[in-house]
């Protein structure tokens, strides 16, 4: 590993003679140096490129996210907002000054202990802000901590564990012991074995100390930097493009335009095709731009500053066309996004099963609810980053990228570039958040094309504005549901209609259009529905590409049915949870096949509701609510069930049905696991090591987990649909069991036993009769060294110390029945989400007072990691329902392209999140595990909406549009007051 001193003494880069420069004297982490730097160079770029201190990250370009926070003369500063010249004569400290991987500082150690990091991208900046607080205040309160880190955004953790880590560090410095408040993160009962134990994560030491390996952190010599010219118009023909002035700029190596890209390479391949209408699109717009932000040209230059300069010199003449900016306009069809389409409808599927009409005719109650859900996005702190290098001598192409699925990307690159796939290596090291928007290749192909054309390595780092303009968007749909109930409140039939705005496409650049198809399958949620009729459509518009965001249709279905239950309970005159109980699938009915084909594997929905009601004080809440109302305060309590179909397995797509693991024992008795899964911060490398440790009777420290390199690991489909718990854990467990049996047979041969089952497993080996025993090191040495495999390996056993297992879902059914039913998900986690809110009717502000989650994801392998995933997901769900919104005007211009105007939750916005666990192991996975990464954004939105409606019940407010932003709430409240 490069030493800190070496990294701090990286040779200064060469400055072009024509650039305006300045000499600076800066002390960084105690080491002083004089450098000549470009006058416009930012301090963050100086630290990363000139000093080699890549622990400082860039996440927003505008000083909002805090990932670039360092200390300048003892004060926390945003280094992306300072010129290097402004630090002349200053002392700068970065995260590398706090501790080292083998000697963490107290603050870093507590971040690890309390699981205060996941992807680790925001962590260095968060640590520097936290350390500044501790330096000035040895006894901070929780409010003090939340305010101190309010300028540091985290997209993964939900902040709670970070707050606890900081408070614990302050307490320890005072000689006190810190205990997190009760209920803040209640673990399931810890196991004596490795499965079920909160093992600290293996990768945290390097992420905490600036030794992360994110894509932009380690660049080959001579790397060029890419910048992308994007269409300023949502819909426009490209009349003429002239890049000659850009090419003439000193430092520019190549400019790629759409026509050259089309003549050289193939269009984007579709990633999913279940009978949808497919468009043909290239890496750069050729004749027409179909959304604001679509790439028009790409530049490769000696540094990012020159690359940006070159964009301004590319001359493009546009013929501006009428844009489509709404679902209604798309359906009208007077304007088309794609000239060769019959209309703007990309998907239209229907389903009917049971006597729907008859049920509605005999119903005692018919309830209808419609709403519109807005458009938003994942906004990971690390946007998309790609580094491509082509070896002319060998014909090999290496692509380092921030992706959730290295093998999928490799296959798609091969199809698009027309290259042999074996010549392409895709490497995903540390990934700064994914959440579904880093699955496909899209703009990521542009630096690859520039590397092939220029013969030089090319790095592209997506800016925050680009991430909003052309990154994958989500949600944006209309829902219309109608249910028939009998006199006792039992569902007789359900009708549902979903219409989604898929942006410019949902199959090639992204794959989102199919999520409403998934919503159709899961429209019944956690409930028994004897008759069902549904339709799902997706239309194209002149907006950015459309894809998954911590949910793929399950979020649409869940919010729809849970809102309908709330409205139905009010109209029928019944408590919402009582209505839920009367319609739940019961624990003794699992496995349970719903009408559309999915098989729910296990669960106990009534118990989840009971847990949530007890935790929230349901029995006394109405008295508290009336007392508050008498004081002019509007408080409300809302519940929502959550159903998370996980482990997707979709036919005719790159998202299908297998995952492979290879477990290898070294001659010295330690283990290496190779998995096609991808760690994007969720902690699979630690959890998988725990599984191997459990099956092989060793410590997790003896297991190294390798993922994210297509030249090293077996073909796998990566991290999406919470499939790591089903596919990745099952393949890991099965490979471990197979290798354990092989080792048992070899051990029996070496100990001269006739029956391998005379051996009993023990820690690190086997015990046999008569006091015989053997450890793994003796087996490994015996096979590979002395005396060798001919003597030690029985006949019929492969003479190696590894096993490979490919796990496939038992739940999948790809052949549809006559009604179109399918089963494309492996397991179904569940939960009950409960939220208490207070609504200020004068400002429209919604304050969350309490959040409780009763959760069931089957067998829990690492409770600490599961709790962290739930915390982060809940906060993303809160942001999505309350404040995050991508707003377009009627010309298709995106109005918020930065974190000043697209606001995501900060630590000060949130209460503590309380958790309760229930374990209903799945009978269909090896360990009984189920996916659990998407539950928060799936369950929280409806719970918040239900709570707000409950709070405003005296005014008769019904919510039919999201987000619940203050401006929208004020309009609803004003309208309700007029009616009252």
TrEMBL record:
Q: Which UniProt keywords apply?
A: 2Fe-2S, Iron, Iron-sulfur, Metal-binding, Molybdenum, Oxidoreductase
Protein EC: 1.2.99.2
The chain's coiled-coil residues are: none
Q: Name one Pfam family in it.
A: MoCoBD_2
The pathway that the record names for this protein is:
Alkaloid degradation; nicotine degradation
Q: What is this protein called?
A: Aerobic-type carbon monoxide dehydrogenase molybdopterin-binding large subunit
Q: Which family does it belong to?
A: Belongs to the xanthine dehydrogenase family.
Q: Where is the composition biased (Basic and acidic residues)?
A: 1-10
Q: Which ranges carry the 2Fe-2S ferredoxin-type domain? A: 22-98
UniProt-annotated stretches for the region Disordered: 1-21
Name of the top EC class for this enzyme = oxidoreductase
Any one GO MF term held by the record is:
oxidoreductase activity
PANTHER family, from UniProt? Answer: ALDEHYDE OXIDASE 1-RELATED, XANTHINE DEHYDROGENASE
Q: Which InterPro entries match?
A: 2Fe-2S-bd (IPR002888), 2Fe-2S-bd_dom_sf (IPR036884), 2Fe-2S_ferredoxin-like_sf (IPR036010), 2Fe-2S_ferredoxin-type (IPR001041), 2Fe2S_fd_BS (IPR006058), Ald_Oxase/Xan_DH_a/b (IPR000674), Ald_Oxase/Xan_DH_a/b_sf (IPR036856), Ald_Oxase/xanthine_DH-like (IPR016208)
